[in-house]
## 1
Amino acid sequence: MRIPLLLLAGGLCLSAEAPAVTWHGALWASATATDRDTPDGSLFLRPLDASAGSFALDGVQLSADVALAEGWAFRFTALGGRMARNLNLASGSSHDGDLAWPEAYVSWTRGADTLKAGRMYTPLGMEVLDGTQTVTASRGLLFTYALPFAQVGLAWHHAFSPSWSADLWVINGEDRLQDNNRGKTVGLGVTWNRGGSPDHFVTLMGFTGPEQDGLGASAGTGAEGRKRSRVSLSGQWVLDRLTLQFEGDAAREDLAPGTLVHGGLRDRATWNGAGLIARYRLTEAWALFGRAEALNDDTGLRLACDPTLAAVLPPTQGVDLQATAFCLGVERRWKQAFTRLEVRRDALNFKVSDAAGRTFKDALSATWQVGASF
């Protein structure tokens, strides 16, 4: 990470005064139960969430915002718990423990422009790793299977007006802490905010670049030329007590021959999904929430992250999987602390087996979550 460190050093040299530091923290934990007993104890189509019958620390997060001088700033976030382990596994990190650093970037702002360099959360989708900032108690299908968590590289933001802005990204790859090929993934985004309001916005983004191993012992021939491309649409609209969030993503990736069962000389995987998230505030303390999602995966390459499915179905050309998830819940808040109770149903158009060998295609689960931010 030479570029961020050099830029940070340059920012520190701009002022002899001690920089101002603002701290932010959050922690969240959950307990789950389900009507399906899977072979490894995981929740069906919910591999990121706590295992069935357990109470787990999903995440504890501490962030530091350091204001330097003349528009320079630095942000660092340390993340612990189950979500840290998920992030490490997704990023290809040699460290697979329960401690990760999803953010470590230096930024420079002047006028309508902001430039960031380092590691930062992905702009894709409406869900984030910080469970205190999400609407629901469980993780959605798009967050789990379709979208990355974080990225390393450069990000440039330009505001044309209070209502219109654009973003440009040049990154190592989706979730990649260290680049695994010689190419870069590039992205472009356009956002419309109604009247400049952060409560009413729509964002359209597109990313493309090589994501497969082109370096090291696991390098594949032709990996640099096989790209993953995606188009993503997301947004939010607040109507008095009701908050609506939506997200949609469509992607494809060329694969090495032989990656897919029944594949051809040029294997290709495609997937797409959409979700709607709603929260209705009953009082200052109580709220209802819900989410509805569908994810289509023509080869099972993305849904193979679910261990119950991966045990019976390798990525296969033309399998045309469709997963759906619906949840409803209630939230109680005490200023910065909260608790949520959620009931969720997941379904798949393909039979899998439970621990006793019985086949099923859907599962009902319940999640109790507690958390606080400070």
Note: Residues 1-15 have pLDDT under 50 and may be disordered.
## 2
Amino acid sequence: MPKLLSEAEVDAFVDHRLIRLFDHEAQENLLRPDEVGHTWLSAGSSSVLLQSPDDIYLARFAFEFWDGPPAPLDVVDWPLSEVIPLFLPSGLLGVEAPTVGGQAEVFDVGEFQHYRVQAGWRAIPWDPNAVDEPQAYAVFQFWVDVAS
């Protein structure tokens, strides 16, 4: 049974319903998910662009590194999920919104480079008066892609 090796959480701003996860050594521009026929996710070789179906400004990201593939995400808790391959040259990840910037070095998965990632997204009911609370959650579960 796979074991969780490390984890972190970070709140990040969302702008124009978009937020991007990226590797520090990768330069990659992605089309919006709705431009490539996907409802919420656009993946390149080294970055992922998420598009919220709702007009939100703050999302909470959970990052996890596993020693093997974790269990599939529960569809009730994570109605949007996808497993994708990523090549992460540095393994040092950041998040950023298109026009408001972001946060560097939010999670380090190491220098294995080839990963599989189980990504999930869910909106949550939120109180407009609770300005410091997220309106959505995202999870990224990484493991080394031994087939690559």
Note: The beta strands are 4-13, 18-23, 41-43, 47-51, 58-66, 80-87, 92-97, 101-108, 114-123, 136-144.
## 3
Amino acid sequence: MTQIYDKTGRSIAAGDVLKVYHFTGARWRKRHFMFKQVMRETTLGKNENAAPYFFVSHLTLTPEGERDSGYYLALDGKHHADIEIVQGLVWHHDRPRVAAPASSRAPDWPVAMSRELAGAGG
């Protein structure tokens, strides 16, 4: 099974509660987050196109399979800069950290954009 990692380099597992970046507010540039829970690992696709995914719940108590019940997160080995594990069934602080290779790091858009805009403002 391929792992995926949060912004601290810890592997995400079924049962983890995640803090996910949602948007940056217009006033005072406050960052807003949502909380999600990894429910289970599943395989989507058939035969040679089959790939592993996590099903992530929105915590709305909507039964799985109904509209807005959750989404799928690909187990593709990436490090997600916008996701942080806040609680897990297995103590997440004991999990080893893995440094992200530069090619797999997702840019932290709000920080990157604010730096770019600060430099462009003169």
Note: The chain has one domain: 17-120.
